[in-house]
Design goal:
The complex is a heterodimer of chains A (364) and B (450). Chain A is mainly α and 364 residues long. Chain A has 15 helices and four strands. In chain A, helix 1 packs parallel to helix 8, helix 11 packs across helix 12 and helix 11 packs across helix 15. With 450 residues, chain B is an alpha+beta fold. Chain B has three domains: 190 residues, no CATH class; 159 residues, TATA-Binding Protein; 60 residues, Nuclear Transport Factor 2, Chain: A. The longest helix of chain B has 61 residues. The chains are: A mainly alpha (364), B alpha+beta (450). The interface between A and B is large, with 95 and 94 residues. Chain B: One of its GO terms (biological process) is spore germination. Chain B: It comes from Alteribacter lacisalsi.
Chain lengths: 364, 450
Amino acid sequence: MNKQKRGRLTRILVALLVCLQVAVMLPQDAEAFSDQVIQKGATGDDVVELQARLQYIGFYHDTIDGVYGWGTYWSVKKYQEEFGLDVDGLVGPKMKHMLEKSTDFDKEFVHRMLREGRMFTHYGGMSKEAQKGPKPGGKQPGPGKGKQPSAPKDPGKAAPAPGVKPSPETGEAPAPAPEAPEQPSAEEPAQQPEQPAPAPGEEAPEAVPEEGAEENIPDATPSPDEDAVPDDSDADIQEAINTPEGFTDNDIQIMAQAVYGEARGEPYTGQVAVAAVILNRIESPIFPNNPSGVIFEPRAFTAVADGQINLEPDDTARRAVLDAINGQDPSGNALYYFNPDTATSGWIWSRPQIKRIGKHIFCE
Amino acid sequence: MIRTVLIALLAVAVLGTGYWGYLEHQEKNAVLIQAENNYQRAFHELSYDLDHLHDELGSTLAMNSKERLSPSLTDVWRITSEAQSDLGQLPMSLMPFSKTEEFLHKIGEFSYRNSVRDLEQEPLTEKEYDQLKTLYSQSGEIQNEMRKVQAMVLKEDLKWMDVELAMAAQDGPGDNAIIDGFEIIDEKAGQFSESDFGPNAGGVSKNDEDIADRVKDLEEIDEEEAVEIAGEFLDRDKDFEVEIDTTGDGLAYKAYSLTIEDPDDGHDINMDITKKGGKVLWLLEDRQIETSEISLYDASEKAGKFLEKNGFESMALVDSRQYENTGVFNFAHMQDDIRVYSDAVVIEIALDNGDVIGYEGFDYIANHGQKKPAELSLSEEEAREELNPSLEIMEHHLAIIENELEEEVLCHEFFGTIDDDTYRIFINAANGREERVEKMDRAEPVYDFN
């Protein structure tokens, strides 16, 4: 036991030296956050970096998808709590600085995995190869989350990095002590051992060149034959997007098609109003209770009856649907609308009218 | 002579046949579209049902009180049978789909059995709870596959009629993406309440009568005053080109509809202002935003300032979301430390220049200023005891929401997690009732087919 421990210590020491050398040689701010404060609901590269860095130290174990959702929010708050920051879920300069100090972020690796739609992880102290999930595609259905190669599921139990794991019982977090930015040189080695811990000799050099040196990048790319096979049958999962609570992206797409088919060429508010009518119908007890039910209801929309629903909607129609879902309703809570120039049914004229937008009259 | 007559007759016959053919063709197309629409409807509804089945099963996992659990299980049962009926409307006789049917049947049976029994006397056993968990995770897998197929159908504009025609022409199902997708779903299935809008999200249940009621005693404004109010609200008091309309009888209140042309960039801004009281109901600017120059955080600050400037007092940001280059912010009124979700506004900020491009205040105008419930007979600790024990509680607030009976109620709002899912649960602070249990949406992956 003791011998083992000593053996490991020497290995860590060797790795430490390697790391220290590298740390001295490499410019430290190769990849870093932008200046913005990251807030819940945000999307983009900063969020990817945030998730990856939090995962690196075992604070985040959900998918790295570039959307600051609930999972990320709880991880951020936990981090803030354990390191004595304001627990507000806002990632400001101080937290970013601490994260940059105590974690590695291999931008190239993470973004490539995202592009390739892999289920991957970014834990520190594990070989990148092991964290690279299988590519989606081929015949086998997309891998479940459980298939990740022994990625630590629970940040509490995961202890890939003895120096990094914050342990509340031992008082202040040991090594990457956040409140010690004034002595970066002493800190650098303290946190680095995690990197080579499993396989020190080969690990350290592998992780390092990826960070800066251009010519070493091919090293990190998968062997060509793996990449060469284009999988055209299956979906690649890319970065995720925000959707309004209660609606899937597919719901939005169907609604955008309906809006485009019905009201393209109309003023923007007219398009929002058409989308709002669909939503008002979903809410109404006398209509079906889901988007496709309302839209494909026989004789409900002319664009459906004549097949225009299948046109590819433009961005404006999509935007109109999002606005309507977020509460906008220029129609004034209308359930019907019609074009007075082409309306054939006399019944529709008997409805109490609310307003006219563009070519359409909206009514109760 | 005879020849001319013959030629004329033939010509008429040819034209007639042509016209008849044309009509037949039209008719066939109309029927095809009709049939296609029916299939599309059944298909998309099936996928919607599977989505909600998963959500509802998830919510039952986070529920604790028996009086919530029974209706929820009944809902699961109802959704299952709807999904089964949708499935039955798809041209599935041609392909194997038995396992998914069986899976739906299993869920249906489980939920029915447990919803009709008296859960007060016989609560769910450990084993049944585990079973529920399994069903939940399985339905998640199926939901995910289904969404993928749906995304593909939408993106590639796949037609069910094509499948049928292809099958009519060939002997068996050939290489077809829809069928392939469904086979995967079916394999997955072999291995093993309706859309609930949040208390603030999507103010789709706005009540024009409430608004009418709130403004009925206020002073009526004329068109000029409306334009002035609009200019102040927008903080762009230049010489506007404004078109004004008045709303019709279909609404309980009367309002001016303004179309304002922004002199800076020529975009239209639309807004409605109530005739009585001159309250701005909503505003929208029609502009495609191409870039993100400011962060969501900065945008939220701008949204807050906008509210302050327009006389909204003590509003707190309760939700923010970025959609590409737009930030959408939900604010709720804060009454001391209570989030009044029923007095909510939505602000949209363009992330390129920080302009307010959307505002919606239906709920705020309808509810703000009403007497709010204040009876807090349950402490946070007592409310916690009403929660499902397997929920890990992450956040607590006091909140006023509108419940299913459209009453405003004071609640303890808990955010908690079970595994990787986040739930929001409202416990009535007066009587401990579980008013609402919601599973919060996760970010949705984008499926890319190439």
